Amino acid sequence: MNLILTTSTAAEKLHRLAKQRRKTNPTSLAVALDTIAREHGYHHWKHVKDCVEQTKSLPAVLISTRM
Q1: Which residues of 29-43 are buried (b: 16+ CB within 10 A; e: fewer)?
Q2: The pTM is what?
Q3: SS in 3 state form for 19-67?
Q4: Is residue 14 a contact partner of residue 25, using CB atoms and an 8 Å limit?
Q5: Per-residue pLDDT for 5 more than 70?
Q6: Are 44 and 38 a contacting pair, CB within 8 Å?
Q7: pLDDT in tens, 8-57
Q8: How big is the CA angle at 55 (ends 50 and 39), to the nearest 5 degrees?
Q9: Three-class secondary structure of residue 17 per DSSP
Q10: How far is Cα of residue 8 from the mean position of the Cα atoms in its chain?
């Protein structure tokens, strides 16, 4: 899968969006997380989490020049 530079803060915002989505569409949190992830260019929620971990492991110089 492709890497999308993702901070922990960005992942938390997506998580909050999924929780808000559940208020209008009664579904499980897992389904809401996957839906929000796909709407933002990820394959699924695990891809979001994987991107966060990979972004953390990159040198700070690379992250600041790419974002």
Answers
A1: eeebbbbbbeeeebe
A2: 0.85
A3: HHHHHHCCCCHHHHHHHHHHHCCCCCHHHHHHHHHHHHHCCHHHHHHHC
A4: no
A5: yes
A6: yes
A7: 999 999 999 999 999 999 999 999 999 999 999 999 999 999 999 999 98
A8: 55
A9: helix
A10: 8
